[in-house]
Amino acid sequence: MIRFALRCANAHEFESWFKDGAAYDRMAAARLVECPACGDAHVQKALMAPAIAKAPGVKGRGEAVPATPAPPPQAPVAGGPIPAQVLALLQRMRAEVEKNCDYVGPKFADEARRIARGEVDERGIYGEASEAETEALRDEGIEVAQLPWVPRSDG
Ligand SMILES: [Zn+2]
Asked: Between 20 and 30 A from 138 (CA), which of 56, 58, 82, 108?
């Protein structure tokens, strides 16, 4: 199961669980994913799938943590297609994240806290986190980056 933060055409944000990314794609294309607030079925991912955590204030083992990528240009979330240059940039960022970070799935927030507390080896991680979880992590001083998660360039 995978949880996506979604946004409807009326800018309501909500979360929903899907069997996998492909299941979401199918359901969204068939307009089977509806906003609980207004019933709108024109939903899209709210662009917060992956995030990178880094233990605050820990230095010296920098190689274990990839440089946090620069934030992308404000992604056009209003529904238009992503410009090709931006898409290419985001695809490169995704490839870097996948190469350098461990995927922890929906346990992202828990794992980020364990890293921050030094309970596990410091490393870059990525996974799913809700807006609320992301804000909570930031409140706790844990560095989190949100990247628009675009399809891979190789399909
Ligand atoms: Zn709505």
From this structure: 82
Cα 82 to Cα 97: distance, rounded to the nearest angstrom: 20
Residues within 5 Å of ion ligand 1, judged at the Cβ atom: 8, 10, 12, 35, 37-38, 40
Parse the chain into domains and list their residue ranges: 2-44, 47-146
Q: How many Å lie between the centroid of ligand 1 and the Cα of residue 7?
A: 7
Average pLDDT over residues 6-22: 91
pTM across the whole model: 0.46
Mean pLDDT of the chain: 78
How many Cα atoms are found within 13 Å in the side-chain-facing hemisphere of 78? Answer: 3
CB hemisphere CA count around 60 (13 angstroms): 3
Assign 60 a pLDDT band (cuts: 50, 70, 90): very low
**Residue with the larger pLDDT of the pair 134 and 77:** 134
- Tokens coding 15: 């979360």
C-alpha 48/C-alpha 4 separation (Å) is: 8
